[in-house]
Every structure is written in structure tokens, then in C-alpha cells.
Specification:
The protein is mainly β and about 550 residues long. It folds into 2 domains: about 30-290; about 300-515. Helix content is about 5%, strand content about 30%. It has a 22-stranded parallel beta sheet that branches. Strands 3-6-9-12-15-19-23-27-31-35-39-43 form a 12-stranded parallel beta sheet, with no helix packed on it. It has a 9-stranded parallel beta sheet with strand order 10-13-16-20-24-28-32-36-40, with no helix packed on it. It is globular, with a radius of gyration of 26 Å. The N and C termini lie far apart (about 75 Å).
């Protein structure tokens, strides 16, 4: 009897578990039973598959899907532990042999999937009447259009509210227009108190009257964007591309291998990305290109990190292996602004490593980076290159109001400005300080900071950038090669690296410039002099015996 009861319970539990883990199919071209059980019988409307049940994997074929026919308050809402996969070939193309080699994520028994080839669009353009604007020509174009052809759009195309472990992969999210009080955050995606991961997604032409034109992660939780494009989004407050923040809960935003381009905030902070209030923000292998802040007080053309007046814990910002070009602001920090509104209770730690900051424009203070306020405000810039940035007022890197700057293995050269120092400004009069070691600083600028903090290994000569190279690589004769901190890890640099890290943003990486061209180095040329001879054997034997 007991055995039978146990077996019955196992069977019931098995059925329950199985019912919560299912494959669901959506294809607007399907002509079958419209029940979502197979591609043949796929739902033709994505809303029929949502919000989903825990364990659901919802596969969506190429096409354009809208939250509603006419209701702007409607969104695609997603529950906990639900995965959305877009980019599958549509039924109308499934027998086209030209697509056989385009499978990116094989799904046995399913259709080929390639989000770049088979665009799966979640659109807030309910009436199909949106005017497509070009924010490359006019950074404020989407803001101007929000009350015109887009006034009848969905407020938020996707909503994730109180959900965990949501995965969205392979979609274009566009046409959100959050312009109504109570629905004025997150035109593309509105997320609150949730955890999610977005992969291989594009957020394009979304607008919010308040925060997060493309995406907002609000009041707790975390969001991760991998391999995403955040392009031509706008807001009237903070985070033209993405906003992560909100009181009182801790937020986490992680961005890997993403492109932020032509996003704008108007009269706010963070043209590309805003992290506010206790936020932990991580950026790795990203490009921020031509993001802008416009308005009387607009900080952080590419990124703004701001710890508001709400006490501890401190905020943090970690940025590595990233490129910042063409960003601008009409206020402070055309590239990056890190600051706090309350110098007594709010702190942050910012770490920039292996980053290129070039050709950005600031109208007031800190065209490359602005770091401000005390208790504590610590910024560590290691192996970065900061060059050819322009500003109308104050310096390329500005530190004031008690903030602390630590520079190592970094090149700051060739920045221009009309007032003060175009290279480096440390506001020692208001408690700021710095340490500068193994850096190449352009002290030909008569106003460049020359006070306390300069330590070991600094050089003040031309780093010899390759002429016309937008990547700002240095020539093989550069004095910055093998001139970094001797204790820094050089092991990832190419052969003939001199066993010492380079200064600049490629230092310590496989892209570092060696003193001897690798093309002329032969096998067995241990000392990298272009010859294989007894000198190489002697060096090899010496290292072997150590």
C-alpha cells in the first residue's frame, strides 16, 4: 500500500514538473491549430504565449509583434523563470536552402535560428505610422517626435515586474513611447524588482519622458545585457539608453560586449547609461559612440554614475576593455561622470581599466572624466588612453570636492581646451588628491596639474600614436612600451613584450604593441632581435636554470 502511494505521488509530481517545463511556439505565419504546441500549430500572436509559466521556453519566429492593436497601456509581460527566444526562421522561409548555414543556436526538430538574419521585432508602433528619425543628425529628434507620430504608441513594449530569472534573447525592441504620468519610464523595457538577462537584442528608437528611454531597471533587482545594441533611444531625464537605479533597494547592472550609440538624454544625466542610487554597475568590452546629454545641467554624455542623497551603501562602477568616442555633454563629464549629491554620507568607487577615451567633447568640465565629492570618492584609472578630447572650459580629467584619483600605466596626451588644464585637474583646494605612477602625461600644457601625487616611473614625452589610427595605437618606437609598473601583469602581451607591461589601454593585453614587429620574429628568436643565434641559446639556457 505504501509503495503504491509513493509511486502515485512520484507520478503526480512528475506530471506537475513536466507541465511547468514546456516548449511554446509563436509564428505569425502559422496556419495550424494556433495552440503553441508545435511550429505547425504555433500561436500567431505573442500575447497568447505570455506571461508564461515557470520553465516555459517560448520560441518566436521572424516577424513583427505588437502588444495590442490600439491600447498603449498594453505590454508584453513576462513571468519568472520564462525564456523568450527570437530569431527563428519563419514558416514562409523554412524550406529555403540558402538559410541552412545560418543556424546559430541549433534546436533539434525545430526551425533554424539566427537573430541577425531573421529579425523578430517587438514593436510599440501600434498604428504603423511612426516617423523614423535620425538621431545621428539631430540628437534631440526622438524627443521632438514623441508627441507627434509616436503619441499613440505603447508606453512600454516589454514589462518585467516582480519576476526573477527572466531571459530574453534575439529580439529587436522598438517604438516604445513612455510619455504618460505613471507610465513614463522605460519605453523599450520597464523592469521593476526583477532579475533578467537580455542577449543578442537591439533596443532602438524608444523614448521615455522620465528615465530609461531604451531600458529601465527600477527599485531593486538586476539586469544583464550581453551582446546587445542600444541605439537611438532618448529620454527627458536620466539614462537615454539605459537607466539602472531607484530608491531604496540596491540595483545591479551588467553590460558585456554591447554597443551604445546615438542615445540622448535631454535635461538629465547619462546619455548612454545612468546608474543611480547605490547602484553596482559593471561594463566590459563595450563601445560608447556618439551619445549625448543636452540641457542646462546634463552630466555624463556616455555614462553617469550618481549616488543620491540616501546614505549608505556606496555605489560602484567597474569599466574594462571599453571604448568611448564621440560622446558629448553641455555640462560636465562628456564621457563619464561619477559623483554624489551628499558629500558626507554617499560614496562611490570607480575603476577604469584598459579603456580608450578619445575624441569626446565637453562644454564645461571634464571632457574625458569628471569625478566629484568626498567620503569616500575613489577613482582608479589603470592602463587607459585619454587623448584628443576637447572642452570649452575645464580639463580632460577633472577631480574635485574631495574625490581621490589613482592613475597608473595611463596615457593622458593631446587633449585641448580653452581654460584651465586640458589634461588633468586636481582640486586640492577643496580636499581632492591623487597618486600618479608610471603614466605618460602631457605637461606641455602649461596649466596641467603639477602638485603633490606624482610618484615613480612617469614620463612626459610624446607617446607617438600611429598617425591617422582611430584606435590610438602607438608606434613600435613609443617610449610607453615596456614602461608601465614592473609589478603589473604583462603575460598576455604578444611575444617580444620585454617582460614588462606597456602604458596605455592595450597594455597587458594581446593587442599591446611590441618594440619589435612580431612579423619579423622567427621561431627560436628568444631575444627578439630578428636572428636565431647563440645569443638566443644563452638566454634560453639562463631562463631554464632559474
Amino acid at each position: 500500500m505504501k509503495t503504491s502511494l509513493i509511486l502515485a505521488l512520484v507520478c503526480v509530481l512528475g506530471l506537475v514538473c513536466t507541465s511547468y517545463a514546456r516548449e511554446v511556439y509563436v509564428n505569425s505565419f502559422a496556419t495550424g491549430a494556433n495552440n503553441g504546441t508545435t511550429w505547425t500549430d504555433a500561436y500567431t500572436n505573442l500575447q497568447s504565449a505570455l506571461p508564461g509559466t515557470a520553465g516555459d521556453v517560448i520560441n518566436v519566429a521572424q516577424g513583427t509583434y505588437k502588444p495590442s492593436v490600439s491600447d498603449p497601456t498594453a505590454s508584453f509581460t513576462i513571468n519568472s523563470n520564462v525564456t523568450l527566444l527570437g530569431g527563428y526562421i519563419s514558416t514562409s522561409q523554412m524550406f529555403d536552402s540558402s538559410y541552412v548555414n545560418h543556424v546559430v543556436h541549433p534546436n533539434p526538430g525545430s526551425l533554424p535560428r539566427s537573430p541577425l538574419d531573421f529579425l523578430t521585432i517587438l514593436s510599440g508602433d501600434l498604428n504603423g505610422n511612426d516617423k523614423i528619425v535620425d538621431m545621428a543628425d539631430d540628437p534631440c529628434a526622438l524627443y521632438k517626435e514623441s508627441t507627434l507620430s509616436r503619441a499613440d504608441n505603447s508606453y512600454s513594449v516589454v514589462k518585467i515586474n516582480g519576476a526573477t530569472n527572466v531571459v530574453v534573447s534575439g529580439f529587436v525592441i522598438t517604438g516604445g513611447n513612455a510619455i504618460v504620468g505613471g507610465s513614463n519610464n522605460g519605453g523599450g523595457v520597464y523592469q521593476s524588482d526583477s532579475t533578467s538577462t537580455f542577449d543578442l537584442c537591439t533596443f532602438n528608437q524608444n523614448y521615455a519622458q522620465f528615465n530609461g528611454g531604451g531600458v529601465v531597471c527600477y527599485t531593486g533587482g538586476s539586469i544583464t545585457l550581453n551582446n546587445c545594441v542600444i541605439e537611438q533611444n532618448s529620454c527627458y531625464n536620466h539614462g537615454g539608453g539605459v537607466y539602472v537605479g531607484g530608491n531604496p533597494n540596491l540595483n545591479h547592472g551588467t553590460f558585456n560586449n554591447c554597443l551604445f550609440r546615438h542615445n540622448t538624454c535631454v535635461d538629465g544625466y547619462g546619455g548612454g547609461l545612468e546608474g543611480e542610487r547605490w547602484t553596482k554597475t559593471v561594463v566590459n568590452q563595450c563601445v560608447f559612440d556618439s551619445n549625448h546629454c543636452r540641457g542646462t545641467w546634463s552630466n555624463g554624455g556616455a555614462i553617469d554614475i550618481r549616488n543620491e542623497n540616501y546614505g549608505s551603501p556606496d555605489a560602484s562602477f567597474d569599466c574594462s576593455n571599453s571604448v568611448f568616442v564621440g560622446n558629448s555633454t553641455t555640462s560636465v563629464g562628456s564621457t563619464i561622470a561619477c559623483w554624489a549629491s551628499n558629500p558626507d554620507t554617499n560614496g562611490f568607487t570607480a575603476n577604469l581599466t584598459n579603456c580608450l577615451i578619445a575624441n569626446n567633447y565637453g562644454d564645461w568640465f571634464g571632457d574625458a572624466g569628471y569625478f566629484s565629492r568626498s567620503s569616500p570618492r575613489i577613482t582608479n584609472i589603470t592602463n587607459c588612453t585619454i587623448t584628443n578630447n576637447r572642452q570649452n572650459n575645464n580639463p580632460g580629467v577633472g577631480v574635485d570636492k574631495g574625490a581621490v584619483l589613482n592613475l597608473k600605466n595611463t596615457i593622458i596626451w593631446g587633449n585641448t581646451g580653452k581654460r584651465a588644464s586640458a589634461q588633468l585637474y586636481i582640486d586640492t583646494a577643496r580636499g581632492s588628491s591623487c597618486t600618479i605612477n608610471y603614466c605618460c602625461i602631457d605637461t606641455s600644457d602649461p596649466n596641467c596639474y603639477r602638485g603633490p601625487g606624482y610618484g615613480a616611473g612617469n614620463i612626459y614625452v610624446d607617446p607617438q600614436f600611429v598617425a591617422g589610427d582611430l584606435k590610438c595605437n602607438v608606434q613600435s618606437s613609443s617610449p610607453t612600451i615596456d614602461a608601465g609598473d614592473p609589478t603589473s601583469d604583462w603575460s598576455k602581451e604578444p611575444k617580444c613584450n620585454g617582460e614588462r607591461i606597456n602604458m596605455g589601454y592595450t597594455g597587458g593585453t594581446g593587442q599591446a604593441t611590441p618594440k619589435v614587429s612580431v612579423a619579423f620574429v622567427m621561431d627560436g628568436d628568444v631575444n627578439c632581435d630578428g636572428n636565431v643565434d647563440l645569443a638566443d641559446f644563452s638566454k634560453l639556457a639562463s631562463e631554464w636554470l632559474q
